[in-house]
Records
---
Amino acid sequence: MQSSLSLRQMSIPKGLGYLTIMAPRNLLYMRSNFLFGSRCWMIRFSAEVLLKSVSFRLFSMKCDNADSEPLESEELLNNLLTMGVDVDMAKKRQPGVFNRRGTNEQNLKTFLLSKGASKEVIASIISRYPRAMTRTPESLSYRWDLWRRIVTSDLEIVAILERSPESFFRSSNNLNLEKNIEFLYSVGLTHKCLCRLLTSAPRTFSNSLELNKQMVEFLREVCLSLGHNDPTGFVRKIIFKNPFILIQSTKRVKTNIEFLQSAFNLNNEQLLVLIHGPGAKILDLSNDCMRRNYTNIKERLFSLGCTTEEIRKFVLSCPDVIFLGEKKFSDKIDCLIEEKISISQIIENPRILDSSISTLKSRIKELVNAGYNLSTSNISLLSWSQKRYNAKLKKLNTGQNVVLGN
DNA sequence: GGCACCGGGCTCTGCCATAGGT
DNA sequence: ACCTATGGCAGAGCCCGGTGCC
């Protein structure tokens, strides 16, 4: 009888309450709350109308330091429109930003321009994450420097911000970021690995230190409960193989590990090998998705005459296949079967499902044209690298020409 | 040289919910 | 009441090449 992992008994610490170091609001915002608090909405409304209609020019004569003076919302809107920001999108995403007094959009623009971001990228960043313009220049600059300790150039950071503005701007807690960097190094991750984490899963660095610690601790507990004696190496390996692991919840990862153990009836050692080996990549799949995709693979292969053991072996030899959604998996299988490739050929060469449908189709067509008999020959070349495949195809075609020439 | 085996490189945001501060 | 900071979720592949055996 196999010993079972008592994951269910392992505690997942609930968030201990995030470290809240709020960005200090500017004085005028506080003053305006005092003067124009909710109980005085009528006064506020009247005052705003008065300010807009009578002393707009006076009110909007702000000095260079945007922190010390408010931006009248009309001016904010004008600024944003001039910058090319999609104001409707921004308002829909974070309406609160537009109600506050004192935003730093001009400073943000100047800052990002100095780092090499284009005007279009800046507009896109603000459109998608308007809270970015509430950050102070000092805070931005320090955060940027901390990121630069990990990546080598400003342009790399710009590329990340363009992809995911939220990762950089969601928090202004730079102390937490510093502690995260320190913590990740202390786990034994190399500089290269941190760089990969930052480019692949930048959210990791905006997580609270506590949240990252929870995941690392959870993985260490899994390792120890499975009887492995090097939890540090284990954690390092999983994070290296799956840089997204730290932006998943422990609940999701725990559920997936339990699923893999029960679905494949693995003992502790087999499970250990799977999750810090080929299975590391699929630990961050949503629980439903993993269950759904695996059930689909099982049902489809079963209907094609595969045995349970064959299916088990097939998936374990290439767990990435669980990434494939129902349609994609079926389309790939159909496309291969249509070309008289047998299901036994497919399950013996699971890596061919790595290739995209278009690659499979074009290669099948080229190979058939070259006289290659897919149902009797090796099909692994369907998943070779382009370079190797081209060389092979060239030889096949040359060989055919020689035969025809004879 | 030809191929099997295998590991690794890229890559993953944008939205919602909610606790807690002002 | 409103805003901010943070946690958590859904969604879902493809490609390259080193190494070693024959």
---
Amino acid sequence: LATEATSIHVEESQKVSESDYAKEPWIRFAHKKPQKGWVAYNPRTMRPPPLTRDKDFVKLMSWNVNGLRALLKLEGFSALELAQREDFDVLCLQETKLQEKDVETVRDLLEGYENTYWTCSIAKAGYSGTAIISRIKPLSVSYGLGISDHDAEGRLVTAEFDSFYLLCAYVPNSGDGLKRLSYRIAEWDLSLSKYIKELEKSKPVILTGDLNCAHQEIDIYNPAGNKRSAGFTIEERESFEKNFLSEGLVDTFRKQHPNVVGYTYWGYRHGGRKTNRGWRLDYFLVSEALADKVHDSYILPDVPGSDHCPIGLVLKC
Amino acid sequence: LATEATSIHVEESQKVSESDYAKEPWIRFAHKKPQKGWVAYNPRTMRPPPLTRDKDFVKLMSWNVNGLRALLKLEGFSALELAQREDFDVLCLQETKLQEKDVETVRDLLEGYENTYWTCSIAKAGYSGTAIISRIKPLSVSYGLGISDHDAEGRLVTAEFDSFYLLCAYVPNSGDGLKRLSYRIAEWDLSLSKYIKELEKSKPVILTGDLNCAHQEIDIYNPAGNKRSAGFTIEERESFEKNFLSEGLVDTFRKQHPNVVGYTYWGYRHGGRKTNRGWRLDYFLVSEALADKVHDSYILPDVPGSDHCPIGLVLKC
DNA sequence: CTTGAAACG
DNA sequence: CGTTGCAAG
């Protein structure tokens, strides 16, 4: 155990006992050598003290569920449990893979979260799909980029709240053979960036979801081997910087943890989750005006049910 | 229990105890009234005393497995167990749903049955497919109807033995909306009939498999409701008579049990198996020259793993 | 490796 | 309802 965990430096406070180990697969590393002083993200120890509900804060979560119906069928876990455990205010979902006809069956999924907004792919049934599920009623909601013709795949929901716009996005995967790379960058990323800039004229923006890009080497278990893999091409990484970060959006997890390895996705294909061969593809990016209000940007790597895990953002109001 | 079983007259010898009941779903009936003195087929009581292996006989079996790989994955049952239980000489399979590339993985499925012959659909992957698996080495084997262009779906294997040809057939389903009815009748049934007549010039024939036709009202749980359902249309039933029975093939189960309800197929769709809402679609038809040599033509309705159950034929040599 | 749809039964 | 192969990730 110790030998496996030494691959990245693990702080003493993060050491887990044998008995905790089974419950905390995130502690296992695939990296064979310690790299650049990176440390492993431990959601038990690396989070600030929780804010109590009598303080003013809002808790947002995001999760690529890889098929909502499959998730709900799973025993041993329900979206409801996450709600109870995390007591979030807003939950953003990606890859619901719902069709329009399925939406009614899940519209009132979570008691207390009466405000739910769903997009489905009309281009391909059972593909893509996003949702915002909220305790707070948004001032307004809009679907898609609006200004473009990229809205057939149900990849974006925007909810306007008092002090920010919340964008729940499922960015197109560049695909096997990178056959959709140019669409992803030249069309989607660009359009999304423009859309965000437009919104920022009136209010700060929070962009969350599966942005389908591991920004830096620290954000992927095997950077060298994935230089031409969808999600880690130099084109996508540069687009991520140019269209989002350079435009003033702050990667909240990275800001809080400059040297921390925290993955949010582990491919099913090679049992990547138990060896922590993961990627950080899910983000909370916030407009600069909000950056200082972030109390905690975190990952819940132990939540099962999807190839992605949920992430969270606690924002002081 | 008693009330459910009275829907068709059940002979005293067939009555089962409460404890046996769970194991014998075949005894349950969907018919709401006794009809025409029909009785239920009970494989425990309605079979002649078994022949011992020192007498000269051959035991043939046939089973539409509805996907051989799925069947083999099932726990609680394996094709091997059927071999051990039934000690057959030859097993005919339909709907193996194998592709050419899968055949090698199952070619030596059953120890002691070294002679195996497989057809696959080249028209549609994972569709149709038949096999003959034999302890006895056939004199010759041929695939398809040979004389026609209906062989792209892997629906027929013929094995020549000393005293008969054995045809393992998976007759085309007429499909939803009966869109393949005319092909089934005018092309397939006719070609098969001609093929059989040709073979009969040299030797008697045994035609077994999923013939996809419930011949008479006694052969289906709900005759009135299925007059336009694939497998019970008047066209298919007349074709069955004209092309096979009138041409001298004897329906061995029906000959042995003129008034017995014995189904071999229960659709998955409405849990038909536990209510015995079945059809008799699987047959052993034999040339008249063989009819008197039939010791037993039987059904094993309690064998799980497919929507069809295996049937058997014991033939004195 | 897993989801979901589609075809077929 | 259940199998299979398929596209997608």
---
Amino acid sequence: MENEKENLFFEPHKRGLMKTPLKESTAANIVLTEIQPDFGPLTTPTKPKEISQGEPWTPTANLKMLISAVSPEIRNRDQKRGLFDGRNGLPEAKDCLHEHLSGDEYEKSQPSRKEKSLGLLCHKFLARYPNYPNPAVNNDICLDEVAEELNVERRRIYDIVNVLESLHMVSRLAKNRYTWHGRHNLHKTLGTLKTVGEENKYAEQIMMIKKREYEQEFDFSKTYSLEDHIMKSNSGHDGHADMCFVELPGVEFRAASVNSRKDKSLRVMSQKFVMLFLVSTPQIVSLEIAAKILIGEDHVEDLDKSKFKTKIRRLYDIANVLSSLNLIKKVHVTEERGRKPAFKWTGPEISPNPSGCGQVLPFPHSDLEAKRPSKDNCAKNLFSTRGKPNFTRHPSLIKLVKSIESDRRKINSAPSSPVKTSKAESTQNSAPFPSKMAQLAAICKMQLEEQSSEPSKKAKGQQERSGHCKPASPLRTLANAELELTAPPLIQPLGVVPLIPSPLSPAVPVILPQAPSGPSYAIYLQPAQAQTMTAPQGLSPTVCPAPSSKATRSKDPTDATTEKAASDAKSGAPTRPGSLQPVPDRPGAKNRDQESAGERGSKRASMLDDSGSKKKFKEDLKGLENVSATLFPSGYLIPLTQCSSLGAESILSSKENSSTLSPNHRIYSSPITGVIPVTSSELTAVNFPSFHVTPLKLMVSPTSVAAVGNSPALTSSHPVPGQNPSSAIVNFTLQHLGLISPSVQVSASPGAVPVSPRIEAVSVVPENVGTQQGRATRYDSPVPGQNQPSGQSVAVTGTPQPVPVTPKGSQSVAESFFRTPGGPVKPMGASCMDFDGANKTSVGTLFVPQRKLEVSTEDGH
DNA sequence: ACCTCCCGCCATGCT
DNA sequence: AGCATGGCGGGAGGT
């Protein structure tokens, strides 16, 4: 197991390389490996499924047990696998299954549709890689391999990868090969997307559409005009930009070039979709609106139903992936008309600028930087070369890029012939499975241990793992070590943590004392994930406000808090491992290097021009700068001391979520999934285009409320293990932080509680994301148990605890702070990045709808 | 009956 | 031509 862990942590892709060691771990793995070769899908195997079945579950019996416990379905799978294991011919195996199992049984054994969901698949996928991979290692992803390991058709992997690519979490390296960047670039990417979104006036478009709709309700004639209006406007200036794929500095190109094909595609749609969240005040976007806007861009004119339908389908695909990343959460917005599916942004708040202050990209750039105000400057100063500008790729540029890339690819691809590797890697299977196992285990663990007192330990363990650092592995590089070290501190709950004085000190041994406090784990895991994990089980910390709140329910907010925490956890979860970690790494440095920085730089430079349009950034940035400065002078701040960490987290979290927006926003912004923006203005603005300003009532379901309450701070603050922090505390904290408005308190009762005067009736019902289940662990999970009992480690990830309050912000914060490109030091940039948002805001404010808006989060289905 | 969205056909475009 | 990508929408599972 250890080996596996190491491998996993270090470099996911490496696993393939590492495989050998992995194999050792389990005989089964070996078998799989051997078997796989037979398949010999040099080309892309059409149906990995078969293959996969055999492979995946090699993991330890313990894990299996856990998993089985978790789900009967899983159990069935295992059974199947067992059958397969022996076999060389998959078909035969299947037959056997059929024979052995009665029709019903067989059917049962068949994974249900849910099990095949893209969200779950994405979770599995994500579990294979660390949120913050060590750049030094090559984190290559072989699509074939992954498809096999996950037992899905490659087509599905493309869906996931395309979305991840849109976020620059992966980049195409060559045919069949992608490089995993994890979340290193995420913040930056989001910043860029936000900027682009602003440029495109998405917020305005949203408002227009809403307005239009609103009007339509009573007046058809108007509708059209409005629509046309909107559409035109959109298509007009923005249209062009929209079509382009927004690239990030370090990561992007290949994909685009490769895919020059259709820039609209899932990738672009994904980016646009994300932009909508980033620019809208409430950060809640309904599918309907998103689809309209996306269609509008392409073809304003026809809102053809079929087209709309197709768009919606795609959006679901994208949403599933984003949900798995804990960036969004499914909610329902209820308006007069009825209830509409929508998604709420649960990711970090982002400043308009390319966030990456010191981030990742080393390439110098120009325009963007120049434009960028302080943030960028900060980044620049800190890292001269680094600030990468973001830009939208211009079609014209694409060709150039392509040629360049093609050359590069040729080079890259040659070596890569994926197939073989994959097989070889197949060995990895062990790894992958472990991850799965880990996830499952994590879930189980969470359930079992929710209440266990040791969360902190687990967390630590997980953290390390998650961090992709392999705990004991000799392999670790300093960087990793640093990461690990830093990460934990950040992550850990305020109270809990100990140790490492500062993230900066890399030398410090990673092991954190695991305090009994539960929260610690929360830290590791990003809230979002945590949630996810839980949710599936029904544990849903988030969901159940009541339990969490028990401590003190004095205010509903508490409950809300819980939810939030959960949601946060979810959101954070993906990141968990790394999220907190301060990864000093320079993301992708390696990869980049491989790619030829020079090319990129040049490309980018050219790109910059294109992107150059973003003057907005500057403005935004300015605002952000101020904010950031105010909030956190420097990333350094973050000595992980408990106290400090808490403060930082809270702050950060609040920042992120609320982002730049006005104070009001903060409240809303809270990562909490269900949370509804308390502030009436924001909500109204976004949601309701209506011009009339009317006070709205916010109806918050308990859950949602709970969510509100959850603030990262809380999480961090509460050392208490799994249990939710007392609601009172939470409330206090939140309020204190500004996450929640005092007025907002949430009531436990299911009924909605009027929050702000303005809001008349907004009810939020938390829905859990469908995928929640699998999410839990990522990378960490895979390794069941090195040091810790397998279960524990897993648990960390998945801790179901309801309240793990990891603040989203914490994650982001951590990232920003730690991420110093060069090293530990990167104060300014990070800080800058995180806090931005204040300035922007709100177009939406304009309209205050009289309508009532209800936002409900779905609990797990 | 509606919401989701899996599944896989088949177009597209690179090699 | 062969293969990698991925657009697309039928249609089915879930609720």
---
Amino acid sequence: NRTREESHGEQEDEWALIPDHHQRTILHVDVDCFYAQVEMVRDPGLRDKPLGIKQKNLMVTCNYVARSLGVKKSMWLKDALEILPSLVLVDGSDLTHYRQFSSEISAVAQTFTPHVERLGLDENFIDVTDIIGDYLNNSEIEGHVFGDKDDNQVHHSDPCGCGCYTRLVAGTHIAKELRQQIYETTGITCCAGVAHNKLLAKLVSGYHKPNQQTVLFPWQVHEMMKSLNLTRSIPGIGSVTYKALEDLGISTVQQLQNSVLKLLMTKFDQETSQKLKDLSFGIDKTPVRKSGRPQSIGLEDAFRKITCITAVRVKYYTLLERLLKLLADDGRIPASLKVSVRKFDRVKRFGHRETKQVPVSSSVFTMGVKGVNEDTKSYLMNMIMGLFHKMVDTKKDFHLTLVGVGFNKFIERAQDAQAISNFFSKRTRQQTDDQNSECKDSNVTKRTKFHHSPTNRKVLESFTAESSMVSSEENSSRFSSDEDCIEENFKDIYENPALLGTHINLEELDNYKGDKEVEEVIENASETRKELISPEIKMCVSDDRSCSEKSACIRLPNGIDREVFSALPGELQQEILLASENKQNPKVVKQGKVLKPKQTNHRKSNSVNSKTIK
DNA sequence: CAGGGGGACT
DNA sequence: AGTCCCC
């Protein structure tokens, strides 16, 4: 009972000859201009205005008021404002609220069935095959039907004979109900597509926009696929695959349908070749996979130009602070840290990133009764900078247009966590003669094992809270298993101990009473703070315009964005200014005992290395 | 400055 | 770690 066109494949094309019985019923739900809707729900005053959501210089989406006035998705901000000067803009760089709405929407779908697969923040595939029985008594179709009206009226029952007609009609009722519930719980409107596979459901969901739905019956598949014209409009055929096909003289879906598998196999392996052909016929056997929680959590910041190491540190530090909040919300313990950069490249322009990763010890996130604190941040910062230096040779000129940081593996199950924590504590015992290892071991075990418990949740949440610094001794045992990493990655800070002082939370000073060397580092830093960050100057720094009129203004180092600078915590502002000062006036900074005793053994010089500051 | 994510496969 | 895909 497959459609005729599905048999047009080559004889050797075995997969294509397997009939598609359309046994499944799949929904694709796609939120209308997602970011714009979220902002309109959050501020109903925006409803009637032309609204654009921007990220940097790009308007990533806009509401339908704006669209009716000639603005399109993914326009340059400049172009959008030229067309529509009255466009109201909201910055959508921080995805926090979008993530929240997104998971609420998926959660509504999950009340129907667990078979929900997320695609990006605003799309969900739902396999409703399991629950279709509850909806079979509906005879009327909800929403639109793809294709010619007359054509569909011919088939008023189930011409296919496999029961797909009845199931798809039932699917339209589920889609209707789901969209209604999403609207009631979140205030967000969606489109939906109903079909017998993911490809088709997705293709058809956008046929009537916004806030509408469409069903596709199998006998319309051929017409639908032909109407796509270019192969590029098939999900799964991206720019690279499209160009490869183009090289073979295949540009349209029809050409792909008529292509010979052997020709495709000159550019793709057999499996891929077959998949491409299947797609052109609207055949897609891929299952709807439960999405579960994200497998990575990361943040990026793009910009036009960063050329100095201090700015890099500032960017990573800022991203890391936000990332730790996301991590605390997530509740899981990460096992791997990934750092990325995008180097300026005239040819590639964008898209390409270089990345490096390292395992991170789970103890970094679980040790310490008072939770993870500033110290964890600087530990991770050193990891980050270590990876960064593997990608960028800061002794030479460099030009970055993006930095990113993320966690991409998580300790999932109690058993795994147990094994991992045992592994770490074992290593620690062998390598150090740590009397406290018993205590640490039990800490790790307990926390990791129950990392979903409320108690542990609290520990995680305290990442971001101001909390007290642990003693140096505790530090050394906590991180000793990552010794190798620290030695490599701490290099930057070794070379400029004055920077270290600026990392210290001023509220934690009491912890260092009596430690002369540490106090000295801190004093250095606090003097710097007093000198450079007086309230007046802060005001000046935060306002570009007033700054240009005042003579007392701080002159920021080249490459430092004033807006970025003013948004930073004082300690990082100091770091920048200090670094810039040192650049012009390299001076010797007296060495102090630093936070992690291991370092002192490896420090080679007391002098500030102006090269690292660039 | 396409942005700010994410996933699967190799 | 890189490539390709998706939104």
